[in-house]
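User: I'm putting together a small comparison set for a docking exercise, and I want a reference complex before I start. The sequence is below, and the ligand is EPZ. Could you produce the 3D structure with the ligand included, as structure tokens?
Assistant: Of course. I'll restate your input first, then give the structure tokens for the complex.
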Amino acid sequence: MDKFVVRRSGPLHGTVRISGAKNAVLPILAACLLTDEPSVLNNVPQVTDVSTMVEILRHLGVEVDVAGPRLTVRPGRYTGSAAPDEWVSKMRASICVLGPLLARRGRAEVSMPGGCVIGARPIDLHLKGLQALGAQVQVEHGKIVVKADRLIGTPIHLAGAFGSSVLGTDNVLMAATLAEGTTVVEHAACEPEVVALAEFLTAMGAELQGMGGPLVRVTGVDRLHGAAYRIIPDRIEAGTFMIATALLGGDVTLEGVRAEHLGALIDKLREAGAEITKRDDALRVRATRRLRAVDVTTLPYPGFPTDLQAPMTALLALAEGVGVITEKIYADRFMHVAELNRMGAQISREGASAIVKGVPRLSGAPVAATDLRAGVALLLAGLAAEGETDLSGTEHIDRGYERLVDKLTGLGCSVRRVAVADAAGDAAAAHSLGA
Ligand code: EPZ
């Protein structure tokens, strides 16, 4: 068990290179199950969610070689069709093996995900889509089993109460690539990570049209082959560093980003008073004074991403004025609010909104990360707070941020990773694992 020891930092200066997108690589790893030929993925972030997906593939009988950011996946004639509970319970994104296993092996078994800390996360749209393609779905003893001798293309309307589903769209697209005939997914998710999956599937020989829009047409093919793909930059990691710079002040250049994936955030940060300039694959963020409060509503892409809502709440906690944050994706994704308030923030909840009254200062406190994005929000708040913040629950942050301590210290932040056993005992034995 580790914790982060965070001290007040800023202004930030320097350059940070953005890693490959966790949320793009997870379904792409699952898509490798659609063929027996090897695929090579580059720019893969070394985060624990990727390790979890690699373990799931290995359990299914797939060989995976990991060489830094380059993964070679050799499915061969893998025989597994059940994702092990032990790994599935760690990561809900494991649900995206359903579509490819069904299409290639005719059967897939995954434990039924329950609610999680960011709220209810149903999978009805995944199952509706697979059923429409001809799968039989059974949910028994906490397991989902989907089976089909053949899948047949059809129009599928995939909208839920909260709009489109990212991994639901992924599952249906993957299954449809090997179905007979044409599938049209209506209300497909438009997130860049879905487009990345569609690009990878196309490189494997799938026939897709309309990716990136709400209507995607898939013409089934008999077989797919292996492919090479470079994972797109992580827009959420990029957004986190942009928010950090706006919050702590300074002048930071992010390298290896796609500004077109960050439009909603760029717009809000400019409205709040940060200066943002784009150059090729770089974004420069400058902030010289306290930011103004803004209102933010999370929405499916190209709207403001829910995965940046918590870091943005930390920014508003110290902005001038009152900002209202409204969650339209996960109505209960506000676990960070109580922890921010322990640090002196003035945030109140009203249904799916948080009213954030900016305060001039926060004060460091022991706080706990409950999920990935809530955790990183508390880390940013700790960097802006007076005194020291002890942040536990670092394992949540490690799920999705590659070398975060290194990258932050490179910009001038004071943050150390400390093994908790050491910290509790001899302070001198505490060691920084930042490198
Ligand atoms: C993806 O989750 C991301 N995960 C999440 O990233 C992200 O928060 C989310 O999309 C929204 O952008 C990965 O890509 C691995 P959804 P996903 O299905 O696909 C409802 C992070 O921090 N819904 O698009 O599981 C659902 O409850 C995370 O990196 C249904 O009603 O999310 C939500 O309100 C966590 N029925 C909305 O749709 C369904 O069958 C969008 O969820 C599926 C979803």
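The domain at 2-19+233-426 is CATH 3.65.10.10 (UDP-n-acetylglucosamine1-carboxyvinyl-transferase; Chain). Residues 23, 26, 93, 120-126, 160-162, 165-168, 189, 193, 306-307, 329-330, 372-373, 400 surround EPZ (CB under 6 Å).
User: Thanks, that's exactly what I needed.
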